[in-house]
Design a protein that fits this description.
43% of the residues are buried. The longest helix has 25 residues. It is elongated and about 125 Å long. Helix 3 crosses helix 4 and helix 12 crosses helix 18. Helices cover 29% and strands 27% of the residues. The strands form 8 sheets. Strands 1, 2, 3, 4, 5, 6, 7 and 8 form an 8-stranded mixed beta sheet that branches. Strands 10, 11, 12, 13 and 18 form a 5-stranded mixed beta sheet that branches. It is of the alpha+beta class. It is built from 19 helices and 29 strands. Strand 19 and strand 20 form a beta hairpin. It starts with a strand and ends with a helix.
Length: 647
């Protein structure tokens, strides 16, 4: 008896490709040795592919084996095992014996489960079969039963794969506590098995839809489209604090309540567009990710969707053949992600914008590390639009901070004398200061005064001194950089590099074609406050981007320019704000014309290690409309920070 192991001459089959290495020796003729090796390799290929038609059988049936392989492979869809010849043991009784040579062959099977979404796991096992050599025909015949595919397998057992969801990672806030974690919910819907007729189903669908506040016609059509034995969900609400309770719907015929848990924030209005939501997988999800099953939950929007792979973790898997579990792994919990939001500060910001009758945004950043502490949006037309981080508007005079940086780089200083004429004409277009601009500041005035009182003509007149490319660079150096993300889709600004003449002049004081988001202008305020380019983040980064665009000296000069806004400029009438000095800039951007004209209003500011931008889509002036809102936020935020330091 001679054994040929895979270490002597491995025969490996991968995806139907056979690799033969060194020749064996030491048993019978070399041709006979090569023949059993070839027969074993062909069998390995047949096991992997499920096609046994090319083998020579002493016993067994290629048709039965093919059916058994199809049954085994079915739950794995396109995945097939890699099969290698691990060991060949030949028993050659010699020429004088009436017994023919035989061989026992061991096959090593390996299923790469990563291809069905189970990272780093292989399902491996060995099977054996016998061969008999027919000397006259010079053929090795296989004796094959279905257990060549899997140990003890009869070929007809039910083969199944099931997964168990991992605990989802948490979203951790600035206070080190979980903002999003599993909370009790109830799925409210109709159980069609409780409703005998289509008319009854339609009536209950309409009644339930009206009770939970969804479109009755759409839900009625959805119920009709589902199968006869189906639970058709209408809405998922929190068991505590939801706008609908079980008592509100329990008397509706066919109503069924499924109690569950879902990852949620403390309240439904806590940064919903940023945090996102989870929900049942869709057909598209199932097609894209083979590890998902119907009934699983995945991130559908916001951070939950963008960081789905990290948060979801690795599901557990169970492979069963018949009644036996032949392979299993435990689920691995998803990883937590840390975000900048401070829960109390976010609630403060959200309360402020929700009190407005117009679309509004408020963003607060901690300049020292760029953390977005609050990003609140209120949109009167679409609650799904995150105004604070994804909508851009003409920034008005708040953009003069950006233009001021470009002008400082062109040779000005805060004390330089600049001209503030009543009117500037550029390429046929006249630019004036706003109605009510104080005559005492017309003429030659210090640059810091021009910023504080917001002289439009000073900036429009700089069109020939500062290029649009220099303006765009100043914007990037103040954090208006769309290439550096926050951990979620966001837009900071659109600042053209090729504007010229009157269009460039308008851009210099925040009109024209330049647009920014509330997030972008908060980044400007943060960069000024910390004297470096601040790249705000919602999700904590592993590595910090380059922050060398803005120098400490430039930051100091810009703070000097912004200090006058509160001391004697456009915010001079604002009640004092306790605490460290406040640096600020207001902005009012004209939109439309004639009877349709209105103004976007802005204010940006910084106090200590806190920078803020407040935007209203329609207001009176940045000073009168937005200034008090900034004051309310800064005072409330300081109380929150003081409480955190004292705790």
């Amino acid at each position: 008896m001679v054994r040929f192991s895979s270490s002597a001459r491995p025969v490996v089959l991968t995806a139907g490709v056979l690799t033969l290495l060194t020749a064996l020796s030491g048993c019978g003729s070399e041709d006979e040795q090569a023949q059993i090796e070839d027969a074993a390799a062909e069998t390995a290929e047949a096991i992997a592919t499920g096609d046994f038609s090319g083998l020579d059988f002493a016993s067994g049936s290629p048709e039965i084996l093919a059916e058994a392989a199809e049954n085994l492979h079915e739950p794995f869809e396109e995945l097939r095992p890699e099969v290698a010849v691990a060991d060949i043991t030949v028993d050659d009784p010699g020429e004088d014996s009436v017994r023919p040579p035989t061989a026992e062959v061991t096959f090593e099977h390996s299923w790469a489960l990563e291809e069905i979404g189970i990272d780093g796991e292989d399902w491996s096992y060995d099977t054996e079969t016998s061969f008999t050599y027919e000397e006259e025909e010079d053929i090795w015949y296989i004796e094959a039963e279905p257990e060549i595919l899997f140990p003890g397998y009869a070929g007809h057992e039910n083969v199944s794969i099931s997964t168990s969801e991992a605990d989802r990672g948490r979203i951790i806030g600035d206070n080190g506590r979980a903002i999003v974690h599993n909370r009790d919910v109830v799925h409210i819907g109709l159980d069609k098995t409780q409703l005998d007729t289509e008319e009854a189903q339609a009536e209950s669908a309409r009644e339930l839809a009206e009770a939970v506040g969804i479109d009755p016609q759409t839900y009625q059509e959805t119920v009709a489209a589902y199968g006869d034995e189906a639970f058709v969900e209408a809405i998922t609400v929190r068991t505590e604090g939801g706008h609908v309770t079980a008592a509100d719907v329990e008397d509706i015929p066919g109503v069924h309540l499924n109690y569950d848990q879902m990852p949620l924030a403390e309240s439904s209005d806590f940064a919903p567009n940023l945090l996102g939501r989870v929900g049942p997988v869709t057909a598209e999800h199932l097609e894209e990710d083979p590890s998902l099953n119907s009934g699983d939950t995945v991130g559908l929007s916001g951070l939950q969707a963008v960081h789905e792979e990290r948060l979801r973790g690795t599901p557990g898997i169970n492979i069963t053949v018949g009644e036996q579990t032949v392979f299993s792994t435990d689920p691995e919990p998803g990883d937590d992600i840390t975000i900048g939001l401070n829960p109390r500060m976010q609630d403060l910001a959200q309360g402020i914008v929700d009190d407005q009758d117009v679309t509004a945004g408020l963003v607060a950043i901690r300049p020292s590390d760029g953390a977005i502490l609050a990003a609140a949006s209120h949109n009167t037309e679409s609650a799904s639009v995150d105004t604070a981080t994804q909508s851009t508007y003409a920034p008005g005079s708040t953009f003069k901070v950006v233009s001021a940086l470009a002008m400082l780089r062109d040779g000005l200083s805060p004390e330089s004398t600049v001209s503030c004429p009543e009117m500037v004409t550029v390429h046929g277009q006249q630019f004036r200061n706003v109605t009510g601009y104080q005559d005492q500041y017309v003429g030659n005035i210090p640059f810091n005064t021009a910023v504080a009182v917001s002289c439009n003509t000073t900036f429009a007149a700089a069109y020939d001194d500062v290029t649009s490319a220099e303006l765009a660079q100043a914007a990037r150096d103040l954090g208006l950089d769309n290439d550096t993300g926050i951990g979620l889709h966001a837009i900071k600004a659109s600042v053209p590099e090729d504007a010229d003449l009157n269009l460039h002049a308008a851009n210099l004081f925040g009109q024209g074609t330049v647009e920014t988001s509330t997030l972008g202008m908060a980044a400007v305020a943060a960069s000024v406050a910390d004297g470096r380019t601040v790249h705000p983040w919602l999700v904590q980064r592993d590595e910090e981007p380059d922050d060398s665009g803005l120098s400490a000296e430039e930051g100091e000069q810009l703070r000097e320019l912004m200090a006058g806004t509160v001391d004697y400029g456009t915010l001079r009438d604002l009640d004092s704000i306790p605490g460290p000095p406040v640096y600020a800039k207001t902005g009012t951007a004209e939109v439309g014309s004639g009877d349709d004209a209105y103004s976007h209003t802005w204010v940006i500011g910084a106090q200590g290690d806190l920078a803020v931008a407040v935007f209203l889509e329609e207001g009176e002036w940045g000073s009168s409309t937005n200034g008090p809102l900034m004051r309310e936020f800064l005072i409330g935020a300081q109380e929150i920070l003081d409480d955190a330091q004292g705790s």
